[in-house]
Amino acid sequence: MLKGIGVSNEMGMGKAVIIKEEQPIYEKHTVSNTSDEVKRFEQAVDKFIEKTNVLAERISKSAGEKEAEILRGHILMIQDVFMADEIKKQIENGECAEAALENVCDSFIGILSVAEDELTQQRVTDICDLKKRMLKILLNIEETDISTLPENTVLCINELTPSMTAGIDAKNIAGIITEIGGTTSHSAILAKALEIPAVLSVKDATSLIKNGDTVIVDGTKGEVIVSPSENEQAEYKTKKENHLKEKSELQKYIGLETKTADGHKLELVCNIGNPKDADKALQCDGEGIGLFRTEFLFMSRLQAPTEEEQFEAYKSVAIKMNGKPVIIRTLDVGGDKDIPYLNLPKEENPFLGYRAVRYCLGNKQLYMAQLKALLRASAFGNIKIMIPMVTCIEEVRAVKALISDIKKQLDNDGIAYNKDIQVGVMIETPSASLIADILAKEVDFFSIGTNDLTQYTMVVDRGNADVSYLYSVFNPSVLRSVQHIIKCAKNENIFVGMCGEAAADKMLIPLLISFGLDEFSVSATSVLTTRKSISSWTKQSADEVAQKAMQLTTADEVIAYLKQTAR
Ligand code: PEP
Ligand code: MG
Q1: How far is CA 337 from CA 119, 126, 333, 350, 464, in A?
Q2: pLDDT tens column, 196-238
Q3: Is the predicted pLDDT of residue 472 greater than 90, yes or no?
Q4: What is the mean pLDDT of the chain?
Q5: Distance in angstroms (rounded) separating the CA atoms of residues 519 and 436
Q6: Which amino acid residue places its CA nearest to atom 3 of ligand 1?
Q7: Ligand 2 midpoint to CA 426 (Å)
Q8: Is the terminal CB of the chain with fewer CB neighbours within 10 Å at N or C?
Q9: Is the pLDDT of residue 163 over 80?
Q10: Ligand 1 neighbour 451 (Cβ under 6 A)
Q11: Ligand 1 centroid to 452 CA: how many Å?
């Protein structure tokens, strides 16, 4: 069995097709007729745009607009004035078009590669994809076409680039295995959107698996079984049947209210990263947006979005959600989320450094543009503003002061906004948790960010595999913190939600019901499983489980107990 990262909650079995791409190789040479060479480059750009538009159209139909946007982003990149000018400058200095393109792309890749977060790594993949496709056009090499693969194919490839994925015909693909890529890579996004079983980052997959091998791809567990025995095949078939049955059972929760078995109504909303995700949230029957991670609007570009661009993005979500709550978090940059053009200082301890609200308060022009865009957009729906990484009350007061300054400006200019817009905070640091009683008097709502709360409470880097054994929300310290935060919110009668990954954890749900959480904000794909789980608990049954769990002394004990009770 081969291990990798399972990224779509699906499983499939089929025959392996190994794809090895032809590499664009060229001889570096000096050109004398530089204006002809510039023309050759420009023609290649035109061809690139034409081909990419066709691919984007195709992928928009098969997977959706969000996936097509990835490819449209490549067009924006190649049209970027800085990039195009730099390439032309190098050609004018005698470089051939291929080398000029490669030099410029490589310098971008070099800058971005320093950041270790997955989203910036994704940008690197985008530029590599763009570079390779442009080189192939310049060298007249046909692109790898995977649109005509036979039925029941398990596609096995080093890396599935965004452009290649456009060619996938989902009905012929029983699974995808790649050697590169993680949970937020484009291959992962696409596999999820097309509901194709996928296991990524399987080391040496294209040499260990041979063309025609029968392969089971288990995206639920991140496992690949090559040439399975009869027993393994039978086991797979039963598992798949159960999986499909469970999936179809979930459909009956579409359109239902989210409430406990004894009728206590709760809010079940979605986490999103861009306006297009709001469509998915609606399709999956989310009741609003509990976390819009706005830093995604700042990524995959070379400069910050303007106030106007942000206004349009926030407004579109507010309109789509049509009066349902839309909690928009202000820029949460830093730590694992680097945005190169913001020039964050290189720090010894970036997770403890100049990030999120700290950075924003130090860069007022950038922050004011975002806050103004949010206030203007609040005239179009039920937008609430959320401040990330709060550690002290002064930060909240400083942001609120900026908001009230902007409100005055808007009043003077006669621009509409929601005068009663709610302002809340993420509780994701031990400090915020410890002063939750003080914060609750100052804000309209809390949202518990368990991803960071676990990291900072356990003092364990959330991305470091060596210490991941400590990274669990089920540690008694984290559970006590969550219980305390909810209690402080209740004491002040303010709304309290949770937008960390733990909100969708079936083992944790009874505890959250018992503590009195008002809102669960989960990924769109977890809406129905979360609604189902909530509906199976009464307040009393949840209290019983919570009381027992809160007496246990280790994460392992808590997990062992909650595994038995999970519904
Ligand atoms: C969290 O920390 O729990 C959270 C929701 O924010 P992010 O994962 O974006 O840091
Ligand atoms: Mg966080």
Answers
A1: 8, 17, 5, 10, 15
A2: 999 999 999 999 999 999 999 999 889 999 999 999 999 999 9
A3: yes
A4: 92
A5: 17
A6: 449
A7: 8
A8: N
A9: no
A10: yes
A11: 6
Give the Cα separation of 528 and 343 in Å (integer). Answer: 41
Rounded distance between C-alpha atoms, residue 398 and residue 123, angstroms: 33
Which is the closest atom of ligand 1 to the Cα of 449? 3
For 285, the 3-state DSSP assignment is coil
* CB under 8 A, 24+ apart: contacts of 77-82: 77/126, 77/127, 77/130, 78/45, 78/48, 78/49, 78/130, 78/134, 79/45, 79/49, 80/302, 82/302
Whole-model pTM: value is 0.72
Would the CB of 523 count as within 6 Å of ligand 1? no
Distance 266 CA to ligand 1 centre (A): 21
Q: Is the CB of 500 under 6 A from ligand 1?
A: yes
Alpha-helix residue ranges (DSSP H) falling in 414-538: 430-434, 436-440, 450-458, 476-491, 509-515, 527-535
Q: Count other C-beta atoms under 10 Å from residue 169's C-beta.
A: 15
Mutational test site, ligand 1, from 426, 478, 520, max ligand atoms within 8 Å of CB = 426
Give burial (CB, 10 Å; 0-12/13-18/19+) of 325: buried
Query: Measured in angstroms, how far is the CA atom of residue 449 from the centroid of ligand 1?
Result: 5
Q: Return d(Cα 214, Cα 218) in angstroms, integer.
A: 13
What tokens does 343 get? Answer: 């020039």
Q: What is the dihedral of CA 87, 138, 167, 525, to 10 degrees?
A: -10
Q: Is residue 499 in contact with ligand 1, taking CB distance under 6 Å? A: yes
- 170, 196 Cβ separation under 8 angstroms: yes
The average pLDDT across 242-261 equals: 94
Partners of residue 426 on adjacent β-strands: 447
Q: 59 with 170: CB under 8 angstroms?
A: no
Phi and psi angles of residue 440, each rounded to the nearest 5 degrees, phi first: -60, -25
458 Cβ contact partners less than 8 Å away, ≥ 6 residues apart: 470, 471, 472, 475, 477, 478
Q: Are strands 325-329 and 382-387 parallel, antiparallel or unpaired?
A: parallel
Gap between the Cα atoms of 344 and 360, Å rounded = 11
Query: With a 6 A CB cut-off, is 335 part of the ligand 1 pocket?
Result: no
Gap between the Cα atoms of 526 and 501, Å rounded: 10
Question: What amino acid positions are annotated as catalytic residues?
Answer: 186, 499
The pair of three-digit structure tokens given for residue 530, joined into one six-digit string? 């979360």
Pocket test for ligand 1, best of 327, 428, 498 (most atoms within 8 A of CB): 428
Q: Does 452 sit in the ligand 1 pocket, CB within 6 Å?
A: yes
Residues in Cβ contact with 73 at an 8 Å cutoff, skipping those fewer than 6 apart? 126, 300
Which residue's CA is minimally distant from atom 5 of ligand 1? 500
DSSP line for 435-462: THHHHHTT-SEEEE-HHHHHHHHHT--T
Q: What angle do CA 371, 298, 412 make, to 5 degrees?
A: 20
Q: What are phi and psi of 217, to 5 degrees?
A: -110, 110
pLDDT per residue over 82-113, tens digit each? 888 999 999 999 999 999 999 999 988 888 77
Ligand 1 proximity of 482 Cβ (cutoff 6 Å): no
